[in-house]
Amino acid sequence: MTMHKILLADDERMVRLSLRTMIERDSAGFTVVGEAHDGEQALELASELKPDLLITDIRMPGLDGLELIRSLSDGGASTEVIVVSGFGDFEYAQSALRYGVADYLLKPIDPDYLMSALRKMGSRIERKSGNSTSKQWMWTWKLDAERMAKWVWQLDDHEIRVELERLRSLLLTSDGPASAQLHEKLAYYAVVLNGELEQMARGSAALPAIEMPASPRGNAVLFAVLFEAFIASITGVIDHIRNSRNWWSYNRMLKNVSAYIEENYMKSELTVKEVAAHFEISSNYFGILFKREAGMSLNQYVTRLRIEKAMEYLKNPTVKVYEAGERVGFEDYAYFSKMFKKYTGVSPSEYRKYDYAASIRVDADMY
Questions:
Q1: Does 207 share its domain with 125?
Q2: pTM of the full predicted structure?
Q3: CB of 82 closer than 8 Å to CB of 94
Q4: Domain assignment present for 6
Q5: Is residue 364 located within the same domain as residue 250?
Q6: What was the pLDDT predicted at 188?
Q7: Within the chain, where are the H helices?
Q8: What are 82-126's pLDDT values in tens digits?
Q9: Count of structural domains within the chain
Q10: 238 within domain boundaries
Q11: Which candidate, 15, 70, 63, 67, places its Cα nearest to that of 39?
């Protein structure tokens, strides 16, 4: 399998290290061939290494990211570019789009978004180099189908929609022999997708198969009809998964999550993303459903529970005030004290000093 070469350019060493780690750990098909701490070094390395993809910070000392991209563009380089920027540089980063920048990443970099961007870059690089006509496409399409299976199983509507639009754009740019090749790829994609979903659904009711209609003879218009049938088949599987999960009926989901949080509230790293992953559902969808069922966000629910548990510890004179916060998941005492007062109206020390125990409760409306 051909490995696509990546050059990293960022004046922050930890950012380069983080990017390299994420790419080498999770991104099959890409390898980091060089790192640059400023734009001038990146320009030299790009000339020497001929990377397929440059991931560059937009602001660097000397030759900044925008000037680097302009120099590569003026020099006729075929390197694809992803820009990295802080939130305050967002508008500045957008100005790079006129030089053909393919995507941008906001710091701190989200691993899932980075992988999604690299998948798009892999397809774009292969189409540009002509590799998509060989069997090398199978590895890329296999990875895409595996990720799609995860999103379908987790009911991640956003990622599913983005992936289907990516596939649709491929379809609209194909015709003649390319259409026949696309059908072969979609058929392979469907096989992998079905296999992955079958593995994920073990122990649950069997899922309907995602069907790929027989290849029609004709132009891209007929293949567009084929693709709509493919989407309808995927939608049917999604509906089946959603209907078979009765977590959202009769507060069953709330009870299951409540039990899980009761066992893990003392872990400071407990987040919406972590809880959603435990229940195998996308964090966005999970957050919406939890708030609908519980009447508050999961973060509010966890904080409220932690304060209630802290009040119990504060009634025990052998437990120091700061220890009460640590035992319920607050690593920083100042933050613990701030949240305790926000939810109860008094500080932890005041709560212990005076006889508030009988008169204070954590108010669900005190946000």
A1: no
A2: 0.40
A3: no
A4: yes
A5: yes
A6: 81
A7: 13-26, 39-49, 65-74, 90-94, 111-129, 137-153, 157-172, 177-200, 220-244, 252-264, 272-278, 283-294, 298-314, 321-327, 333-344, 348-353
A8: 888 775 565 665 566 556 677 778 778 888 888 888 887 887 787
A9: 3
A10: no
A11: 63
Ranges in the chain, pLDDT < 70: 1-2, 27-28, 87-100, 127-137, 171-181, 203-205, 212-223, 244-254, 293, 295, 355-367
Q: Among 79, 75, 82, which Cα is nearest to 96's?
A: 82
Say if residue 213 is preceded by a cis peptide, omega within 30 of 0.
no
| Amino acid identity, position 192 | V
Residue 314's domain spans which residues? 245-367
Q: Are residues 107 and 172 in the same domain?
A: no
Residue 15 region by backbone torsions, left for phi larger than 0, else alpha for psi between -120 and 50, else beta: alpha
- Tens digits of per-residue pLDDT, 297-328? 888 888 888 998 998 888 888 889 889 999 99
Q: What is the token pair recorded at 49? A: 């290494």
For every residue of 285-338, DSSP letters joined together read HHHHHHHHHHSS-HHHHHHHHHHHHHHHHHTSTTS-HHHHHHHTT---HHHHHH
